[in-house]
Design a protein that fits this description.
Layout lengths: L9 E5 L4 H12 L3 E6 L10 E5 L5 H15 L4 E4 L15 H29 L3 E6 L12 H21 L4 E8 L5 H12 L17 H12 L10 E4 L6
Parallel strand pairs: 1-2, 1-4, 2-3, 4-5, 5-6, 6-7
Helix pairs in contact: 1-6, 2-3, 3-4
The structure holds nicotinamide-adenine-dinucleotide.
């Protein structure tokens, strides 16, 4: 059964070329939404309800281009899912070059801020509310060693989410964050490799659901948070991690 209130609406998905973003694009299309996915990489897009835009979302121009594409092609913006993110170099704090710290913060925090600001401006102009889902991480609850920039950036996502939730709740814009555990994507494969190279092993077998997630399992929760089924949910930070945090 289709989720309530999604069909026909327009969603922006950042980082939509692969991983969780690509799974989200597929799920939102299956729910009948029209989708603009934006990524630094080209995305293969098909059909008359999906437009892929090549854009660096850590820049104002990139975020504006994503919104403009949605307005021009589909007439507006009702939802935003911010999946664009990078992990960065794995080094302890005292060895990490500041440029590497800045690179992660630029995409994961500045980029998310810019995407939200551009989408919210359009939603306010339309006066029809909206819904935003920001992708944080289990790393906002539990720090991985060697990941100071990534861990910090994922804590900052909660701050971006909560601030937007209080600022735009009265305008009918709901803003939530999700905190995925380990998901089968290129990013997690790389993270596992660098962690084991540093002598730190990810042990999924000790978790209540003893495996990593498929990106489609994350996309399903995102779609629900965008839907009318979640009409009273805002400012939430939802772990979707197979019980890893309990
Ligand atoms: N994979 C996991 O285990 C996991 C767990 C928790 C949270 N997350 C978060 O989920 C999000 C998606 O992760 P993923 O695993 O799908 O990663 P991924 O590397 O497969 O996909 C990320 C996408 O973001 C794009 N991107 C990076 N910088 C960009 C920029 N400046 N502008 C536009 N696009 C840009 C990349 O090109 C890529 O397509 C990230 O924010 C990540 O931190 C992932």
């Amino acid at each position: 059964m289709a989720l309530e209130g999604l069909s026909g609406k327009v969603a922006l998905v950042t980082g939509g070329a692969q991983g969780i973003g690509a799974a989200t694009v597929r799920r939102l299309l299956a729910e009948g939404m029209r989708v603009v996915s934006a990524d630094v990489q080209p995305s293969r897009h098909e059909g008359d309800r999906w437009l892929g835009v090549e854009a660096d979302l850590a820049t104002e121009a990139g975020a504006a281009a994503m919104v403009e594409a949605a307005v021009t092609r589909f007439g507006g913006v009702h939802a935003l899912v911010t999946c664009a993110g990078i992990r960065g170099t794995a080094l302890p704090i005292h060895e990490l070059p500041v440029a590497d710290f800045d690179a992660v913060m630029t995409v994961n925090v500045r980029g998310m801020f810019l995407s939200m600001a551009a989408a919210i401006r359009q939603m306010l102009a339309q006066k029809s509310g909206g819904a935003i889902v920001n992708i944080s991480s289990l790393n906002a609850r539990r720090a991985n060693p060697g990941r100071v920039a990534y861990n910090s950036s994922k804590h900052a996502v909660i701050g971006l989410t909560n601030t937007a939730a209080v600022e735009y709740g009265p305008d009918g814009i709901r803003v939530n964050a999700i905190l995925p555990g380990s998901v089968n994507t290129g990013m997690s494969a790389l993270a596992d490799q660098t962690c084991s190279a540093a002598g730190w092993r990810m042990d999924y077998t000790q978790r209540p659901i003893p495996r990593t997630a498929d990106p489609a399992e994350i996309a399903g929760f995102i779609a629900w948070l965008l839907s009318d089924g979640a009409s009273f949910q805002t400012g939430g930070a939802y772990e979707i991690d197979g019980g890893a945090t309990i």
